[in-house]
C-alpha cells in the first residue's frame, strides 16, 4: 500500500503488517488531478489545479496528528492494470482500516448554502459511485466544505445523510467502543437494499458502476475494462449469488418504457438503477426459514439454475405463465408486517418445464399468503369477475433454469412413429395400411432387434417458425389396423392425423416460445377426402380411440434420432374406467 507522507509529499510503500496510522481522502475528481506520475515531477505538479487538494489534504491530516494520508489520484499507479485491480479490490478495506476519512465536498459552500439546501443535497459527492463505500467503510468520516472548513461528522448528521442516501442510520453510526463491525452489519442487510443505495449513483468509466460495489458486497474479482457496464454488473451479481442465498437480488424492476423492444429477460438486472422502484418498501432478508433456504445456485456463463417457489398464473390458457415467489421480505420502515416479492416467468420449452425466462420486467408484484398485489392494469387478470381475486395454487419448489439472454428455442428436427401399441398384456398388434407422402419408412437395428419406424423430416417437410404458426397445421396421416387378442378378432381401422399448433395467447401478450404437436383419430373416408375440419378444431378433435374395454391414447415425447431430437408419437392403452373426465392434451 502506498501512502503520502504529509510533511514531505513523498510516496512511501508499506507491507500489510507495517502500515502506520493514516487518514484517507474522499472526494470527487476534477480537472488536472495529481497522478502518481505527477508526484515524480514535483515542480510541474505544483502548477496543476489539483495540487491544492493534495496540499490541503496533507495539511488536514497533519492537524489531526496523522503523518500519512491515502489519496486515490496519486497513491495508485494506474498505468499498471495489475496494481489498479489490486487497489480496487482492496479499497474498501483501506477505507475501513483508516483512522478517519476526510470527505471534501468541492461544490458546497457552507457560508452560503445550508445543510437543508438543494445545493448540499445534490452535491456530486452524494451522486458518485465510488463515494458510497467511502461513506460507509471508515470508522469516522469528517465533512469539509469547498473552503476546507470542517462542518460535521457522519455520526452527527446521520439523520440527514440517511434521508439523502437511504443508508440505514445503524450503518452510519460510529460505535462507542471503536469497533464498528462494518462488514458484519453490511452482511445483515439484503442484497437488494444495498444495491438501492447505488441506484442513483454514476461513474465516469461505465464498468465502475459494478467495480465500485465490490467492497459493499465483500467480493473480489478481476477488472475487465472494455467489457461494458452490463457484463461487469452481471459478473458482480454472479459472484454475489455464489456467496449468499439471499433472493432479494432478483427483486428488481425497470420502468415500462422500451418494454416492447425486448420481451424476455434473465434473472439478473443490468445496473443498480433497477433496484430503485420499491415505493418506500425496503427489501430485507427473510426472517424465517423456508425450503429454499441455504440451497445452492448453479451459476454458468449461460444463466442460473436454481430452486424457486412457483405457481401457475390463474386463467392462463397457454399454461406457460408462472408467478415466482422470492425468499425475502418487503417492509416499510419501522413496520413489522411484510410482503413477499413476486416476479413473472414464462416457460420456453415444450419438452422441459424447467426452462423459463422472466417477462414484464416492469412488474415486481407483492404477495401476502395467497393474495398477489399487481398494478391496476394487471390486477384485473386475477379477478374472477365478481370483485374477488382468483385463488392461487399453493406454490411448489421447483428447479428452474433461466438464461441470461434468451434466444429462440429450436424445435425438434422431425416426428417419428413406431408402429406399436403399448399394452400391459402385449396382446394388441398394429399394422400400417397406408400413409401420406410426408412419412418416410425406415428399418433399423437397436440392441440386436429390428426396429420399424415412420418419420416426418422437418428438413424435407419445412415447418413454420413459432411466431408464424397461427392455425393448426396437418403434417401427415397414417391409416392403421388394430388387432386385439389371440383369436384375431375383426380388425379395427382408424387414421392418425398429426400436426403442429400454436399455444393460446397468454394474459401478458408475450409471444409463445414453442408450438405443440397434436394427434387426432379420424375416419379413413374423411382423410381420403382431405376433410380435416374436425381434427383441426381442438374442441372437436378426438384424442382417443375406443377398443372394447380399452381406450387407445396418443401421447408425445422426445427421442434421439441420428444425434438430433425429434418428436415421437406413442400409442398406449388405458382402461375405460380410468378415462372418466379425461381430456387429451399434448
Automatic annotation (TrEMBL):
Domain DUF8212, residue spans: 231-256
InterPro entries linked to this entry: DUF8212, HET
Domain of life: Eukaryota
Domain Heterokaryon incompatibility: 22-112
UniProt cross-references to PANTHER family, sorted A to Z: HET DOMAIN-CONTAINING PROTEIN
Protein name, entry field: HET-domain-containing protein
Natural source organism: Pochonia chlamydosporia 170
Amino acid at each position: 500500500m502506498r501512502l503520502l507522507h504529509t510533511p514531505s509529499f513523498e510516496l512511501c510503500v508499506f507491507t500489510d503488517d507495517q502500515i502506520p496510522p493514516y487518514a484517507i481522502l474522499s472526494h470527487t475528481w476534477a480537472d488536472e488531478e495529481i497522478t502518481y506520475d505527477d508526484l515524480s515531477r514535483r515542480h510541474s505538479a505544483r502548477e496543476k489545479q489539483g495540487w491544492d487538494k493534495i496540499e490541503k489534504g496533507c495539511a488536514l491530516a497533519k492537524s489531526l496528528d496523522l503523518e500519512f494520508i491515502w489519496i486515490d489520484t496519486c497513491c495508485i499507479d494506474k498505468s499498471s492494470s495489475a496494481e489498479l485491480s489490486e487497489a480496487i479490490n482492496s479499497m474498501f478495506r483501506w477505507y475501513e482500516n483508516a483512522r478517519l476519512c476526510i470527505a471534501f465536498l468541492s461544490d458546497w459552500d457552507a457560508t452560503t448554502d445550508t445543510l437543508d439546501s438543494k445545493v448540499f443535497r445534490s452535491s456530486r459527492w452524494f451522486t458518485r459511485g465510488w463515494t458510497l463505500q467511502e461513506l460507509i467503510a471508515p470508522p469516522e468520516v469528517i465533512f469539509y466544505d469547498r473552503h476546507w472548513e470542517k462542518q460535521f461528522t457522519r455520526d452527527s448528521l446521520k439523520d440527514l445523510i440517511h434521508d439523502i442516501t437511504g443508508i440505514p442510520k445503524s450503518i452510519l453510526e460510529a460505535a462507542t467502543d471503536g469497533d464498528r463491525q462494518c462488514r458484519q452489519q453490511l452482511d445483515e442487510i439484503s442484497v437488494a437494499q444495498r444495491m438501492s443505495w447505488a441506484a442513483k449513483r454514476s461513474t465516469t468509466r461505465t464498468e465502475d458502476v459494478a467495480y465500485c460495489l465490490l467492497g459493499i458486497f465483500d467480493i473480489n474479482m478481476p477488472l475487465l475494462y472494455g467489457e461494458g457496464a452490463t457484463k461487469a454488473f452481471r459478473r458482480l451479481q454472479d459472484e454475489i449469488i455464489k456467496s449468499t442465498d439471499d433472493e432479494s437480488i432478483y427483486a428488481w424492476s425497470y420502468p415500462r418504457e422500451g418494454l416492447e423492444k425486448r420481451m424476455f429477460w434473465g434473472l439478473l438486472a443490468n445496473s443498480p438503477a433497477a433496484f430503485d422502484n420499491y415505493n418506500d418498501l425496503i427489501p430485507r432478508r427473510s426472517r424465517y426459514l423456508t425450503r429454499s433456504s441455504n440451497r445452492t445456485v448453479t451459476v454458468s456463463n449461460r444463466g442460473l439454475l436454481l430452486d424457486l417457489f412457483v405457481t401457475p398464473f390463474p386463467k392462463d390458457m397457454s399454461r406457460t405463465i408462472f408467478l415466482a415467489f422470492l425468499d425475502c421480505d418487503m417492509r416499510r420502515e419501522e413496520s413489522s408486517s411484510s410482503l413477499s416479492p413476486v416476479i413473472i416467468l414464462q416457460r420456453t420449452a415444450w419438452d422441459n418445464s424447467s426452462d423459463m425466462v422472466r417477462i414484464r420486467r416492469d412488474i415486481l408484484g407483492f404477495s401476502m399468503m395467497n393474495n398477489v398485489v399487481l398494478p391496476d392494469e394487471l390486477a384485473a387478470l386475477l379477478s374472477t369477475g365478481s370483485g374477488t381475486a382468483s385463488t392461487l395454487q399453493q406454490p411448489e419448489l421447483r428447479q428452474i433454469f433461466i438464461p441470461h439472454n434468451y434466444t429462440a428455442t429450436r424445435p425438434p428436427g422431425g416426428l417419428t412413429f413406431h408402429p406399436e401399441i403399448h399394452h400391459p398384456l402385449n396382446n394388441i398388434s398394429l399394422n400400417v395400411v397406408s400413409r401420406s407422402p410426408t412419412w418416410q419408412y425406415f428399418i433399423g437395428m437397436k440392441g440386436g432387434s429390428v426396429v420399424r419406424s415412420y418419420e416426418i423430416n422437418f428438413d424435407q417437410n419445412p415447418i413454420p417458425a413459432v411466431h408464424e404458426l397461427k392455425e393448426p397445421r396437418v403434417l401427415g396421416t397414417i391409416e392403421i389396423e388394430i388387432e386385439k387378442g389371440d383369436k384375431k378378432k375383426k380388425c379395427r381401422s382408424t387414421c392418425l392425423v398429426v400436426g403442429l399448433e400454436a399455444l393460446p395467447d397468454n394474459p401478458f401478450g408475450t409471444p409463445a416460445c414453442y408450438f405443440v404437436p397434436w394427434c387426432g383419430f379420424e375416419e379413413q373416408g374423411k382423410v381420403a377426402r382431405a376433410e380435416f375440419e374436425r381434427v383441426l378444431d381442438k374442441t372437436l378433435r378426438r384424442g382417443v380411440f375406443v377398443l372394447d374395454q380399452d381406450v387407445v391414447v396418443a401421447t408425445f415425447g422426445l427421442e434421439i434420432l441420428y444425434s438430433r431430437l425429434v418428436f415421437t408419437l406413442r400409442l398406449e392403452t388405458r382402461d375405460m374406467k380410468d378415462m372418466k373426465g379425461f381430456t387429451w392434451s399434448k
